[in-house]
Amino acid sequence: MSLLKFLAINALELSAPATPHLLQHQQTQTQAKPQGWMQLSGHPESIVPTSTGIVRKRISGFEDSEVHAYRLICQEPQTAQIVPAYFGMQEIQAQHYIELQDLLAGFRDPCVMDIKMGSRTFLESEVSNATLRPDLYQKMIAVDAGAPTPAEHEARAITKLRYMTFRESLSSSHSKGFRIEALRLRGRPPVKDLKTCRSSEQIVQTIEQFLAARRSVQKELLKRLKHMRLVIEQSSFFARHEIVGSSIFIVYDDERVGVWLIDFAKCRELPPQVRVDHRSAWTPGNREEGLLRGMDELIRSFEEVYARCGSHRSCLKI
What single-letter DSSP state applies at residue 107? Predict the structure, then answer.
């Protein structure tokens, strides 16, 4: 299996690695350890290929949030088309896994982009503790010594909420509702240091380089992104759930284009009395995460790239 095969697998972002038992089981099935294993982020060896067109992802158990999400999504035919195909669960050596579509199956040396969606990529439960933490203060000043307020400098400690919102502000997540996590250009190794790509011009130039002035690909991607947005707006599943930390995964080669919404590990069902539109600003308790706001901004960025190339402005080429 090629190195690139695992770039798509990585975008599923596991919370825990695969066990040696599973790896041994897989090697028995495939008769050889996969070559070129890599991930852009997350724990190593957290996703394992099973057979042609399928990957296996570790989950916490049968009640895992991602299982819940895929089961409900499968009940909506239109919504099921914008996510990886779900093939069910497996239990191996007391570990639980879901089986999903291999998003790179059928592509040849494609260009790949992973875009983290939302203006908030952490759960409210992750920042509910108001304890002042010196370690997070040290992390903040290591990045930007001028970021803490005078009171925070005096206390030499900050809350986790303060640190997480600071971290989001370093990328385009806070300002745009999305950030480009990583990309891979044809014939080149993945580029992973893109989280500080946050200005409109930086984002557009990055997308220009990724698309390499291919008008047909630009047009098809815009069509699919707009369709995905419409599906989300009309979906009962998305109306009832908070979608935190999901990504849009884009892949294309000379013949095909693919766009999927992936990673539902932080998907949470909303309380009956809570409604979200996925565009409003987040305040603690309202459960807004900015998924559709990010899609609006992402589409605008792709439209800008399309307009620039159409007006014969210089387009970056791979």
Answer: -
User: Which residue range forms the structural domain that includes residue 158?
Assistant: 125-171
Q: pLDDT category, 47, cuts 50, 70, 90?
A: confident
Same domain, 219 and 300: yes
- The DSSP annotation for 130-194 comes to ---BHHHHHHHHHH-TT-S-HHHHHHT-B-HHHHHHHHHHTSSHHHHSEEEEEEE-TTS--B---
Domain identity same for 218 and 269 = yes
pTM exceeding 0.90: no
Q: Work out whether strand 95-101 and strand 47-51 pair parallel, antiparallel, or are unpaired.
A: unpaired
Calpha distance 4→194 (Å, rounded): 19
- Asked, for residue 266, whether it belongs to a domain, the answer is yes
Mean pLDDT over residues 102-122, rounded? 94
Q: Are residues 217 and 80 in the same domain?
A: no
One domain for residues 205 and 277: yes
Residue 224 in any domain: the answer is: yes
In the block, which residue shows the tokens 């989001």? 168
Are 164 and 189 contained in the same domain? no
Q: Is residue 37 situated within a structural domain?
A: no
- Shared domain check, 281 and 243: yes
Q: What value does the CA radius of gyration of the chain take, rounded to a whole number of Å?
A: 20
C-alpha distances (whole Å) from 40 to each of 9, 13, 34, 140, 303 are 10, 9, 17, 23, 27
- The predicted model gives 231-249 an average pLDDT of 97
CA–CA separation, 123 vs 129, rounded Å? 12
What tens digit of pLDDT does each residue of 35-44 get?
332 344 444 4
Which pLDDT belongs to residue 90?
A: 87
Same domain for 131 and 147, yes or no, is: yes
User: Tell me: the pLDDT tens digits for 258-282?
Assistant: 999 999 999 999 999 999 999 999 9
Contact 217, 306 (CB under 8 A): no
Q: How far apart (Å, rounded) are the C-alpha atoms in residues 303 and 175? A: 18
